Amino acid sequence: MTKSELKRSELIDRLIINYKTTENVGKLDNIVLELEEHQIKGIISKAGILGREKHGFLWEQIESIGKDSIIVHYDQEMEIQLAEWGTFLIGAEVWSDSGNKAGKIVDYVISKETGKVINYLFGSNGWRGIRDGIYSLAPEDVINITNKRIIADNQAVENPPQYTDGLAQTLGKVKGFIKDDYEQTLQDLRLKSKEKNEDESSSISTEKEGDS
């Protein structure tokens, strides 16, 4: 992915800030899609006890999406009727137009500049020998789409490209793993050294008691 691309899962629980007052509105609870357009319609925030306080913001109200927060223009007069929203797509089944189930939507990649869906990501159920993993489905290969089910071109579903994070993200994960492994190794060595010293001290004490 490029810097202008984000996965839905990366945005969930991201802080939302009121552009005008700088107040904390809450955290991102969900993203609502305009399915036929493959476009973000808006976002829903959560706040308060158990996240029960909800607010909706249209895509046009989003000022910017940063690494740590989402800046929005909050206007109570433009408050969205959340009861009308319900198109979240996660968990929707992916089918080929030949009638075969390929998996379920687990995530999607969006452009943070336009709000357009760049790729839908689905988990394979092993259909037609496709290995377990996460695969990409381009919006242009989608024939019909609802909140429950996607029907896509058979060729696109039968031979989907496997989704992988960008090289920088992959290297970052490897670097993090090496660091964690190194720190764990140091802890293990310190523990073994401590146990060895305690054993030696105990042995010396026993010898002294025997001599006396």
Automatic annotation (TrEMBL):
Gene3D superfamilies per the UniProt record, alphabetical: PRC-barrel domain
Biased composition, class Basic and acidic residues, residue ranges: 189-199
Pfam families: PRC (PF05239)
Domain PRC-barrel intervals: 5-77, 89-154
Annotated region (Disordered), positions in chain: 189-212
Tree of life domain: Bacteria
Protein name, entry field: PRC-barrel domain protein
Source organism of this protein record: Cyanobacterium stanieri (strain ATCC 29140 / PCC 7202)
